[in-house]
Inverse folding.
């Protein structure tokens, strides 16, 4: 197993390098002169030239890439000019908040999605299936930011069940209950779309599995229908559900952008949007590379989980 | 194509989605012609007027602009951008996919590695990075959204192209000297277009959502121009005081995306052959029983007595009568063989007994199966479940598919016991080892923790037998348990079954198409054809003198070791389709001796000597003897 994890980690290296190349190339597309963008249009040509030299922009693209890569490898992601703070510090701090939000949403969407999909499949064409199918369709069609706004309106403003926004109370203790009350709405709003996608896929994966011969064997043994559905069918269906969980994790992680804006959540997505609007390029670069790298590592965990579930995968 | 539209229209949800979408698109198209207020004229004295105000049907926004007008113009913009992004992504993605799939080799490798890299990004993050580079703006948002969707199309289309690129017609075009470009345009492209359309129909909703999202973040359309996303973004600051300005554009996005999704699902379902054939319906816990007419009373013959069993498959408006009135019985310690060609209904007969026929489409429409005086067919599900495995156990063909691939064989054995009585894990394990010993698996202590894929076919089959023995049943129904095995393993499995029958007094119903197996194991044999028994009697009698022409022909197909130059006679023709059975004898079409009255009326299964036979002109015993 350790060997398998090592192998997967090694195979992630080219992917991570590819990610840095893509991010670097996209940023190299930027029209105009970053120094001018930083210093404003009233900057003197000397200042612009000096800043260009300081930023290493007078070198060739290839040189620039390797310098950037080398610095990142040493933990130096550069300095955000807008915040005047090391990019990595800012990203790490913001990423914590995103991880709390996206992690909760991911757990929610996995559990609810699989539950809904299994119930739907087990009662195919019954009323529960119809109801779930309709709710799921609604869920994958509603923009998460609109849903978030409506939740604020209904649950926070009208019913006063939850705080309107933010991660922590402005006054008062920063304890778990405060976090949960702030987290509930944004995590739900973020989870809805992914829940729908996972529910749909789980339903069809279950239907596929329920027709297989080993299900008939389980029934012939006299296993309870509950056991047939939850032990036999679901376990086999997980083989095709798990990769989709990996993909949906990416959607949840990056879809957090909208939710962080709507709920004023101090996460990395909101940071990125601000940085884009302020054209704080190093912060955008560093943030995107960091989040993408985390996602690659998460996908390795997904692969490991898959190999634990399915003994037929050679580890 | 017409069939496709009929199917699509029959799907009411898809139809509703299509109608709503058509309505929205029409509205968006005629917006410039409608008598609407200018969407960009501000009137700060008339800010935030509510819905249904005088002169502003949907009210006004924070700058006093008419919301209805802005909604329609915004919808127009959102739809245009969404569709444009879908078309961009689809055409670029398809081009990349076709090139990679068609040229293959290194081209393919390089392109697909690049695509994989792009797919390693969390989706929206990549779009953000692109907008960050290009700067905010609706056109840049469009580029970003199409760019992040390109890999999806490229990968799908490549897969299809690889399949097509090696087809004969492409080879023919190559041999005809057509250039690669010509081949791609005239041979490949027409074949991938449908796939592109389906992929588009399922992603276009996403693209509209994503562009709206970027606009919502302020990275898409810039004021005063507004699509639905930026309307929502601008309204957010007044969410609590004037929610209607948020609700109006938000609901519109929901309506558009939902109608597209409904339509897209309909398109996909209409094109999916598995849905049409019902291959994606879930079989219920027990076969549906819908018996017409009286239920036969048991006559007390045998441990298990099957009377007039009819099992049908109802697919759409056709009825396939797989089992058309079967009578059987088996005594304690006896082995009954059921033999017949594929599709003769022998497996369905066996599965019907414990309600294991997949349903839908299976329905048991008549008959009874009395086990020790109790009717299994009419038994309620909890009773049936309780008897499955405990009183009547099954052994299936192809144990690779019939064992759960993700559980250890030991656990599957223990589960079989636990389904009927609670035992501790240690006790269960000991019992599992004991069962493996009973079916002569070497090293049972180790093998008990194997997964099915780690065993050989013969070993897996023995696991299947061990599982059937787990609860000491009275009857074992073996559905072609030796068909997937090679001859030596087959012989071992048969020996095990025969020993168990003798030592435990098991009744065995053995389904097979192999006369050799019948000769080795069975006391009596029933020959099935087109869902009915055509001849039944003791094995010795039937094998020595088959009286039904079908049995005789079936046996003539069996090669005999040392049988000299006897010709192997294949039976001409095919068994009849069981949804349109001819009147009279079902075998008449293929029978050399058929006479006109063979094709009329109902031919009963009648006693003839010590056997029963369903034939008007049975083979003459004296003649057989003479031969």
């Amino acid at each position: 197993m350790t060997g398998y994890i090592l192998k997967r980690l090694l195979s992630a290296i080219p992917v991570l390098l590819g990610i840095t190349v893509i991010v670097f190339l996209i940023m190299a597309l930027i029209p105009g002169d970053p120094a001018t963008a930083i210093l404003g249009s009233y900057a003197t040509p000397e200042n612009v030239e000096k800043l260009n030299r300081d930023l290493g922009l007078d070198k060739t693209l290839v040189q620039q890439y390797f310098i950037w890569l080398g610095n990142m490898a040493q933990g130096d992601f550069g300095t955000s000019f807008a915040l005047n703070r090391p990019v990595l510090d800012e990203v790490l701090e913001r990423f914590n908040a995103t991880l709390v939000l996206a992690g909760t949403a991911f757990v929610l969407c996995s559990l609810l999605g699989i539950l809904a999909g299994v119930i739907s499949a087990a009662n195919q064409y019954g009323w529960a299936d119809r109801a779930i199918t309709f709710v799921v369709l609604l869920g994958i069609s509603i923009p998460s930011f609109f849903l978030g706004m409506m939740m604020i309106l209904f649950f926070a403003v009208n019913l006063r069940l939850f705080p309107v926004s933010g991660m922590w109370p402005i006054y008062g203790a920063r304890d778990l209950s405060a976090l949960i009350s702030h987290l509930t709405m944004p995590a739900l709003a973020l989870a809805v779309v992914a829940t729908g996608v996972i529910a749909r896929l789980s339903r069809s994966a279950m239907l596929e599995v329920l027709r297989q011969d080993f299900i008939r064997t389980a029934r012939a043994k006299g296993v309870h229908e509950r056991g047939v559905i939850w032990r036999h069918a679901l376990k086999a269906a997980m083989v095709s559900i798990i990769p989709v969980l990996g993909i949906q994790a990416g959607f949840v992680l990056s879809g957090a952008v909208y939710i962080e804006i709507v709920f004023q959540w101090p996460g990395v997505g909101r940071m990125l949007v601000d940085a884009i609007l302020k054209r704080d390029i190093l912060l955008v670069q560093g943030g995107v590379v960091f989040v993408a790298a985390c996602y690659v590592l998460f996908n390795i965990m997904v692969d490991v989980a898959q190999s634990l579930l399915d003994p037929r995968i050679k580890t | 194509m017409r069939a496709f539209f009929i199917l699509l229209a029959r799907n009411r949800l898809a139809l509703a989605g299509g109608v709503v979408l058509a309505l929205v698109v029409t509205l968006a198209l005629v917006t410039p012609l409608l008598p609407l207020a200018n969407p960009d004229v501000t009137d700060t004295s008339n800010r935030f007027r509510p819905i249904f105000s005088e002169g502003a049907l949907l009210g006004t926004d924070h700058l006093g602009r008419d919301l209805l007008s802005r909604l329609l113009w915004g919808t127009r913009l959102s739809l245009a951008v969404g569709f444009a992004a879908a078309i961009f992504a689809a055409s670029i993605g398809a081009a990349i996919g076709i090139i990679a799939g068609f040229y293959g080799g290194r081209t393919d490798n390089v392109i697909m590695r690049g695509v994989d890299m792009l797919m390693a990004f969390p989706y929206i993050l990549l779009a953000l990075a692109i907008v960050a580079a290009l700067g905010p703006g609706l056109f840049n948002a469009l580029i970003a959204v199409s760019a992040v969707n390109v890999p999806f199309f490229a990968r799908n289309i490549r897969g299809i192209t690889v399949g097509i690129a090696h087809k004969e017609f492409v080879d023919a075009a190559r041999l005809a000297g057509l250039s690669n470009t010509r081949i791609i345009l005239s041979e490949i492209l027409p074949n991938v277009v449908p796939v592109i359309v389906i992929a588009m129909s399922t992603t276009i909703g996403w693209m509209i959502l994503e562009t709206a999202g970027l606009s919502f973040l302020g990275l898409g359309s810039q004021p005063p121009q507004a699509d639905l996303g930026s309307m929502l973004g601008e309204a957010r600051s007044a969410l609590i005081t004037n929610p209607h300005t948020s609700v109006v554009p938000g609901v519109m996005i929901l309506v558009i995306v939902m109608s597209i999704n409904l339509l897209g699902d309909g398109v996909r379902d209409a094109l999916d052959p598995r849905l049409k054939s019902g291959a994606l319906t879930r079989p219920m816990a027990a076969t549906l029983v819908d018996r017409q007419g009286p239920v036969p009373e048991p006559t007390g013959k045998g441990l298990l007595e099957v009377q007039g069993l009819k099992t049908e498959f109802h697919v759409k408006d056709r009825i396939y009568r797989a089992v058309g009135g079967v009578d059987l019985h088996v005594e304690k310690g006896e082995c009954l063989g059921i033999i017949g060609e594929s599709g003769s209904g022998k497996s369905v007969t066996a599965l019907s007994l414990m309600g294991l026929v997949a349903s839908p489409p299976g329905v048991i429409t008549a008959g009874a199966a009395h086990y020790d005086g109790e009717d299994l067919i009419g038994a309620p599900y909890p009773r049936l479940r309780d008897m499955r495995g405990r009183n009547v156990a099954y052994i299936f063909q192809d144990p690779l598919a019939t064992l759960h691939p993700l559980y250890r064989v030991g656990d599957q054995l223990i589960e079989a016991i636990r389904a009927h009585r609670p035992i501790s894990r240690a006790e269960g394990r000991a019992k599992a080892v004991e069962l493996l010993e009973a079916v002569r698996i070497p090293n049972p202590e180790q093998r008990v923790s194997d997964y099915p894929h780690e065993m050989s076919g013969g070993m897996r089959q023995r696991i299947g037998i061990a599982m059937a023995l787990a609860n000491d049943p009275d009857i074992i129904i073996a559905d072609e348990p030796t068909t997937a095995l090679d001859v030596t393993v087959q012989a071992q499995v048969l020996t095990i079954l025969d020993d168990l029958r003798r030592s435990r007094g098991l009744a065995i119903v053995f389904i097979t198409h192999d006369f050799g197996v019948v000769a080795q194991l069975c006391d009596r044999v029933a020959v099935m054809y087109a869902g009915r028994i055509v001849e039944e009697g003791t094995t010795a009698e039937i094998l020595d003198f088959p009286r039904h022409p079908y049995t005789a022909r079936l046996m003539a197909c069996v090669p005999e070791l040392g049988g000299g130059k006897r010709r192997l006679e294949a039976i001409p023709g095919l068994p009849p389709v069981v949804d349109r059975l001819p009147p009279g004898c079902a075998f008449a079409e293929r029978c050399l001796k058929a006479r006109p009255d063979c094709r009329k009326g109902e031919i009963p299964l009648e006693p003839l000597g010590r056997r029963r036979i369903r034939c008007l002109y049975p083979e003459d015993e004296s003649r057989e003897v003479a031969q």
Remarks:
- The CA atoms of residues 430 and 596 of chain B lie 64 Å apart.
- The mean pLDDT of chain B is 86.
- The radius of gyration of chain B is 35 Å.
